[in-house]
Amino acid sequence: MWPGALLTLLLCSSLEAQENSFTINNINMVILPDQEVQNGENMTLQCNVDISTTSHVRPQHRVLFYKDDVLFRNVSSTEMTESYIIPQARVYDSGTYKCTVVLNNKVKTTPEYEVLVRGVPPPRVMLDKKEVIEGGVVMINCSVPEEKGPVHFTIEKVNLETREVKSKRKKSSPNQNSVTLAFTVEEQERVIYFQCKASIISLRHMETSENTKSDMVTVRESFSSPKFYVYPEGPILEGTPMHINCTIQVAHMATVFPEIIIQKDKAIVAHSRQGNVATYSAMATVEHNGNYTCKVETSQISKVSSIVVNITELFSKPKLESSATRLDQGDSLHLWCATSGATADNFTIQKGEMIVSQSSSFGKRASVWDSGIYTCVAGIGKVFKKSNTVRITVCEMLSKPRIFYDSKSEVIKGQTVEVNCQSINGTSPISYHLLKASDTLESRTVNSNEPAVFRDNPTEDAEYQCKANNCHSNSEMTSELLLVKVIAPVAEVKLSILNKMVESGEEIVLRCSVNKASGPITYKFYKEKEVRPFHEVTLNDTQAIWFTTQASVKQEGQYYCTASNRANLAPNILKSNILTVKVFLAPWKKGLIAVVVIVVIIALLVLGARCYFRKKAKAKQMPVEMSRPAVPLLTSNNEKVLSDSSPEANRPYGYNDDIGNHATKPINENKEPLTLDVEYTEVEVNSLEPQEGLGRKGTETVYSEIRKANPDFMENRYSRTEGSLDGT
Questions:
Q1: Which residues, other chains included, contact 287 with Cβ-Cβ below 8 Å and sequence gap of 6+?
Q2: pLDDT tens profile 572-622
Q3: Residues 464-489: what's their mean pLDDT?
Q4: Taking the C-alpha atoms of 379, 385, 390 and 391 in order, what is their torsion angle to the nearest 10 degrees?
Q5: Per-residue pLDDT at 2 exceeds 80
Q6: Scanning 234, 381, 418, 632, which has the fewest C-beta atoms within 10 Å of its C-beta?
Q7: Does the bond joining 520 to the residue before it have cis omega, within 30 degrees of 0?
Q8: Could you tell me if 217 and 192 are in contact, meaning their C-beta atoms sit under 8 angstroms apart?
Q9: How many other C-beta atoms can be found within 10 angstroms of the C-beta atom of residue 78?
Q10: What are phi and psi of 636, to 5 degrees?
Q11: Strands (E), 389-497
């Protein structure tokens, strides 16, 4: 029965909730006592909500609390106010807070509220010991248990007597609220304490605590300050044995002995690493006067004390003097040594480590070997004092310097030549001066007898001279003159001619010239497009000439030349400009040629006219061709000659080819040839040869050829004459 009633009640409540209406009118947050509280105070966060509903029962809703957008509380409630209490608020509770109400599907959130917690609780300071020896270490722990990291700690070491902060250190603990630091106790610290403060960043503010003091720490000395003891006490005379002691007291707590060091100025004269005393012993001299320092040191602690020691001088430091410090070889060298106060028992004069005199003076004729550093030692009893040093330089006279250069290689214009100056004998350093044409070119100092090397770039033949001097009093030495021959390379080549237009028969003269260049110079003349020169000559002159006395057309063309000497290597041979030469005929030759041409033309015209008229005349004399058939011809001996025999055999002496040709051709050559029948008759003719006189008679046989022709053509006839004819 009860389960059924409960189910009915729940069902009715659900139906009622679905039928009722809800709305969130307002929501806010109240922070008590205030948004800014002191560290350690209680703080309450209240979330107030105003809900309207049609139901008679308060609806259930959820309330969510946030800090810096992080949910830290979630509660369901039917109350209009929900609270969250923070007991003893700390700096880490500072932040921005808000709350959110969720009713069914409706959500509403308050604005953000900034909460600031002021102040930091005083930190706690813990020490690992309350009594420590000098140089020992004290461990300090500083913490703020109420707070959370990050926390920044500042720890100071303070001298109780002077309230002076001896050291200060800072350290941050990002995830914890405590730090532990080690402090070393220094010398002269007797009673000390430590103080600590903590700082925490809250929102945009830095909150810092007050200083918290630690317990007092008593410091024990590991060793006492050093003390000096000088024996003998009172004034100390030179030559007296002297002892300087430095002592300390070491505490029973010390684990190691410190090192004791005695210094004079900055030089260590004695030291000890075992025991509590260090001793410096010496026979007292003036050099022992001064300030002495004793240092006692460990890895962490150092203590110092000082004392001044005065020594009474027995005699003064000897003074060495000389007649001169620079002498010429052969001059007199004199040295003497003297002291003030008590007179020294013995003297020695030394050159380097070699004793040259056992008296207070030394003299001799100076040589080069006497150059060096001299000192004097004076002594009384066991006290010996060394004098100042004197440097003696004995100058050997220079030999005449020689001047030379590497003559194996020729000097080409513009290239560097090395000129050497050297004096074989003479004391160095030696100063050399190179002269060129009486002008000083360069000076150089050499600290030996090696040659001085000078460099120059001569452009023409030059004369050099060298001067040398050293510490000797004589004047400087001068070398011989050195002549350096400079080969000037061919720098420019020019080809010239008097007249580029040359008359036939006249001479052609080509001149190949160069600027300043050293001989011998090789000149080569070329005609354009020819590989080999047509003329080559080597001269000690700056020009070369090629000529021909009879110019002809063959000499026409373009010409150039080359010139070179020893300074011009094969790839650097220079080529001249190109000249074009033209050869023309003389006027009288031109006239003669014109006359010859005219005469030849006239002769040809006359010959042509004569041939023309002869042909015309012969054409008129040709016989009309006969129309009868040809018969064999009979010779004077009645021999039959066939018409198909060889033409040469049947041709009588004196037969004219010209006439024969006309006889075998028709008159009109442009028309078809005619078929002719030829008949021959033999006629004897008596004639008289005019050249032989009247008394000679001859008989000639004349053959007449008669050819038949068409009636439309004129008759053509001709005669062949055998034997001597009159030519008509």
A1: none
A2: 788 899 988 888 776 667 677 888 888 899 988 888 888 988 888 887 776
A3: 88
A4: 100
A5: no
A6: 234
A7: yes
A8: yes
A9: 10
A10: -65, -20
A11: 390-395, 402-405, 411-412, 417-422, 430-436, 439-446, 452-456, 462-469, 477-478, 482-484, 486-487, 493-497
What does the alpha-carbon distance between residue 433 and residue 476 come to, in Å, rounded to a whole number? 10
Distance between CA atoms of residues 264 and 270, nearest Å = 9
**Residues 266, 291: contact at Cβ < 8 Å?**
no
pLDDT, position 253: 66
- The tens digit of pLDDT for each residue in 367-415 reads 889 889 999 999 888 888 889 999 998 988 889 999 998 877 778 887 8
In this structure, the chain runs to a length of 728
Residue 127 zone, left/alpha/beta (φ > 0; ψ -120 to 50; rest): beta
Cβ-in-10-Å burial (0-12, 13-18, 19+) of 31 comes to middle
Query: Quick one: how far is CA 721 from the chain centroid?
Result: 113
pTM value is: 0.41
What pLDDT is attached to residue 19? 64
The closest alpha carbon to 377, from 395, 391, 358, belongs to 358
Q: What is the pLDDT of residue 58?
A: 83
Q: Which two tokens stand for residue 717?
A: 């006839």
- Give the residue among 221, 195, 194, 199 at the shortest CA–CA distance from 209: 199
- Take residue 310 and report the two structure tokens written for it: 């005065």
pLDDT digits (tens, 9 = 90+) for 693-718: 333 434 444 444 444 444 443 333 33
Please, which pLDDT band fits residue 631 given cuts at 50, 70 and 90?
Answer: very low
Q: How far apart are CA 340 and CA 6, in angstroms?
A: 136
DSSP-derived letter for residue 177 is S
